[in-house]
Design a protein that fits this description.
The protein has 72 residues and is an all-alpha fold. The longest helix has 16 residues. 0% of the residues are buried.
Length: 72
């Protein structure tokens, strides 16, 4: 299942709200939305649907160590 991607309008909006390098695990709510709980709720629901559609993360296999052991 392909991961849904934000459209260009959404990317531009959030780039204007939070310029610079995106940070993980942070949420920014535009100030004009503070008085619009329905808008916030809609975006939270959309975000939860997006995350639910993501495939399960599979842990990477550990690589064997290439370090030489010291003789004691």
């Amino acid at each position: 299942m392909p991961i849904p991607r934000p459209d260009e309008e959404i990317k531009q909006f959030f780039a204007a709200v939070m310029p610079g390098k995106p940070m993980k695990e942070y949420v920014t709510i535009p100030e004009q939305w503070h008085e619009a709980p329905d808008t916030i709720t809609a975006w939270i629901e959309k975000s939860l649907q997006w995350v639910a559609a993501m495939p399960e993360k599979v842990p990477a296999k550990k690589k064997p160590s290439t370090k030489k052991k010291k003789d004691v």
